[in-house]
Amino acid sequence: MKIIGHRGAAGLAPENTLASFQKALQHNVAEIECDAHITADGVVVLAHDPVLHVPGGKKYVINAHTYEQLLHYKPDLTTLKAAVALVNRRVPIMIEVKPNVPVQPILDYIRAMRRDGWATADLVMASESYRILKTARQQLPDLELSFVEQWSGIRASWVARRLAIKRLSMNYRPLWGGFNRLMIRRGYIISAYTVNKPRIARRLARSGVQAIFTDYPDLFKSK
User: Can you give the residue ranges of every domain in the chain?
Assistant: First the structure.
């Protein structure tokens, strides 16, 4: 089973930071997933939520502040550029784009990565937004895409067919053997999130799931 570091290695270091990416690499993940947002000055930064929560209870909306302003509030706020430099093609990076995030700056940066030597196999874009994935498919037809779905296998199948997507990132809870085996026979790759217990990973593997996202890659061995 392939092990994907969730937000780097979110259980071992602050999520979506260089420290988290480093932990993921140390534990030999097969791939690293991260979340991207865009600052007011167009910098692609790694954060799960559109708002930064800092000590003292204050909140800062990412797209309303420049990167330098946000860095003052959160010194470990990481840019996608810095994360890419750290990974340096040792493993593929999956960039998840949330539904309300402008995708164009991220697609432009992926083009720049390719000019710097990153190959098609080195990059994946994921989203739960049909619109974002459709835009990515139109602009970068050979970019590997993954549709993110929380509950509905029917919806996942529909989007995958419409956009010629072969990777599905799915909440592990509703997954069941019949669906998994059917989708695998049809050529799909199912990655389950977020799995932090080896016994759950073993159950998912028996049902056909090929990969898991985990906060604790130290608990697993990637194959």
Answer: 2-51+78-219
